[in-house]
UniProtKB/TrEMBL annotation:
GO terms for molecular function: DNA binding. It comes from Acinetobacter parvus NIPH 1103. This is Tyr recombinase domain-containing protein. InterPro entries: DNA_brk_join_enz, Integrase-like_cat_sf, Integrase_catalytic, Integrase_recombinase_N, Tyrosine_recombinase_XerCD. The keyword Ligase does not apply. The keyword Nucleus does not apply.
């Protein structure tokens, strides 16, 4: 029996290598439910020897790499095949050289690709050449032909947030969207989630605490971890309305919070009914409305949306409202402060306000000058970094009519309304 299984698996692999189109499921790689590309296509690789090597490479990388990584590898090899055809003498493995790599990098630049995209392609081909040589798929005299200085430098990313004037226009035309998409957009601009995480929310994604406050529970596939954030009662009501909507169509049979409807807009049966929306479907709908409603950006042209802009916008709003960066990092589920800093754009109006704050020094009731950073540390003292309560308390700042309270959030105030004589009271000239 064991021998039969081995023979069958070997035959399956042979059959796979004879095809130019591979389904991800044949490689044992899961396609994200919000993605539209279910297969890898090798037909654009013109050199037979390169195509065979590319298939061996993808077959090996599929053991440890994701759907998006494998797609990126094939794209890079497609570009490399085109360079090989246009710049080599014999179109053979003997032409793989330092000179060919330089031609490859030039072709990528001429194609108008961004530095970030070119960096991915160069690194992919570097890995491909080195692995092909190591595994003896190709005989290359010198596989060390791409150097560190060849990797395009990626300039520091600027936040791609949606200007408030554009967001206002979008919300003025929010009723132009189908009801589920309208609710999805309201959640997106409030919570700043990755679109893939929002589209794959399940109906049991909300939890409540003893105070009657609500939290959104998600699974961050990119970071492979669970994540919980506090939400407002208004956002909870949007979620609740969507749950009732799904119940009215599917009853209890659908596990997804944002499933596609039974009928398409043209009243045809929807083949993906009950499954989550595709990312592409959502962004196409948003930009269709932007075009129809003439939603204008700061440059006077129709604004082009991407779903990730909403995430940048939430981060930008939070930092301009004075939320500390480490709180934003926790709220957005970032692993490092560097990731959060990409989203954090300090607006001119905020800089002006902070300069005014600098001119008005913060003091305690005894007249001692207080560092504003120490207030944040005092407030967070004793809080549990992995507790959703911590995040809830920090986003809802402990503001007082005449200043701030520096008491740790986990402690109880025994001063009642005697703030002006309390040692935890902080204020400035404002």
């Amino acid at each position: 029996m064991a021998l039969a299984i081995v023979v069958d698996n070997t035959k399956t692999k042979i059959d796979l290598f004879e095809k130019d189109v591979w389904k991800f499921e044949e490689l044992g790689v899961e396609t994200p439910i919000t993605k539209s590309d279910y297969q890898l296509n090798f037909s654009r690789i013109e050199q037979h020897w390169l195509k065979i090597t590319a298939k061996k490479f993808i077959n090996l990388m599929a053991l440890t790499r994701s759907h998006s990584a494998l797609t990126s590898y094939v794209s890079s090899i497609n570009y490399f095949s085109k360079t090989l055809k246009n710049h080599s003498r014999s179109n053979s493995v003997k032409d793989i050289s330092r000179e060919l790599v330089l031609c490859y990098m030039t072709d990528l630049k001429k194609a108008g690709l961004s530095n970030a995209t070119r960096k991915h392609h160069v690194l992919n081909i570097k890995l491909f050449i080195e692995l092909a040589n190591r595994e003896s798929w190709l005989s290359i005299k010198n596989s060390n032909i791409i150097y560190s200085e060849d990797i395009p430098r990626v300039p520091k990313s600027l936040p791609r947030f949606i200007p408030e004037s554009v967001m206002t226009q979008l919300n003025q035309h929010i009723n132009m969207f189908e009801p589920p998409v309208m609710r999805l957009l309201l959640v997106l601009q409030e919570c700043g989630m990755r679109i893939s995480e929002l589209l794959t929310l399940k109906r049991n994604c909300l939890i409540a605490d003893n105070d009657g406050d609500y939290f959104l529970y998600t699974n961050q596939a990119k970071m492979n971890k669970e994540h919980t954030i506090p939400i407002t009662i208004e956002t909870y009501n949007v979620f609740n309305e969507q749950m009732e909507y799904v119940n009215s169509i599917y009853g209890k049979s659908c596990e997804w919070l944002f499933p596609m409807e039974l009928k398409s807009s043209s009243n045809k049966n929807n083949l993906r009914a009950g499954m989550p929306y595709k990312t592409r479907t959502i962004i196409e709908q948003i930009n269709r409305v932007a075009d129809t409603a003439k939603i204008i950006g700061d440059n006077g042209e129709i604004f082009h949306f991407t779903t990730h802009m909403f995430r940048h916008t939430v981060g930008t709003r939070m930092i301009n409202n004075g939320v500390p960066q480490h709180i934003i990092q926790r709220y957005l589920g970032h692993e490092t402060p560097v990731m959060t800093s990409t989203y954090a754009h300090i607006m001119d109006s905020t800089m002006k306000r902070e300069f005014a704050k600098f001119k008005g020094v913060m003091v305690d009731v005894a007249g001692n000058i207080i560092d504003s950073e120490s207030i944040a540390r005092d407030i967070s003292l004793g809080a549990d970094n992995v507790d959703a309560q911590w995040l809830k308390r920090h986003i809802s700042a402990q503001a007082l009519p005449n200043g701030l309270c520096a008491m740790p959030v986990v402690q109880t105030c025994d001063k009642a309304n005697a703030c002006l004589t309390c040692g935890n009271f902080r204020t400035d000239s404002r």
